[in-house]
Design brief:
This is Response regulator. Keywords: Phosphoprotein. InterPro entries: Bact_response_regulator, CheY-like_superfamily, Sig_transdc_resp-reg_receiver. There is one protein chain. The chain is an alpha/beta fold and 123 residues long. It has one domain: Rossmann fold, CATH 3.40.50. The chain contains five helices and five strands, in the order βαβαβαβαβα. It is globular, with a radius of gyration of 13 Å. The chain starts with a strand and ends with a helix.
Length: 123
């Protein structure tokens, strides 16, 4: 079985480190991006199986914009996209799912829950 690639997209380095530490015990190739533009470039080049995507990021693209674009790109349209956000309202979750997210998780998050969701979506 090939090693699954996971792209972590978050402007906060500490969140990226926490997610990376959560995934360290598993056999994943972990990629990181600090903004939406970088995420799209990496995703098209490396074709991750799972993309963990923050909603609120500075710059021209937020997580919702990135998610919509990922769903339009042939090599990433089938990827599992897990939105990971501090935005906890039902309307925020619905916006993420409507944009194409596979699932929507809220910060602060349980590392065990995140890992469970990744495993669930990878089968």
């Amino acid at each position: 079985m090939s090693i699954k690639k996971i792209l972590i997209v978050d402007d906060q380095e500490m969140i990226r480190k926490l997610v990376k530490m959560t995934l360290a015990a598993e056999d994943f190739e972990v990629l990181e991006a600090k903004n939406g533009v970088e995420a799209l470039a990496i995703a098209q080049k490396k074709i991750p199986d799972v993309i963990i995507l923050d909603v609120m990021m500075p710059g021209e693209l937020n997580g919702i914009d990135v998610c919509k674009q990922l769903r339009r790109i042939p090599v990433t349209k089938e990827a599992t996209i897990l939105m990971l956000s501090a935005k906890t309202q039902t309307v925020d979750k619905e916006e993420g799912i409507y944009a194409g997210a596979t699932d929507y998780l809220v910060k602060p998050f349980s590392p065990a829950h995140l890992l469970g969701k990744i495993r669930e979506h990878l089968g």
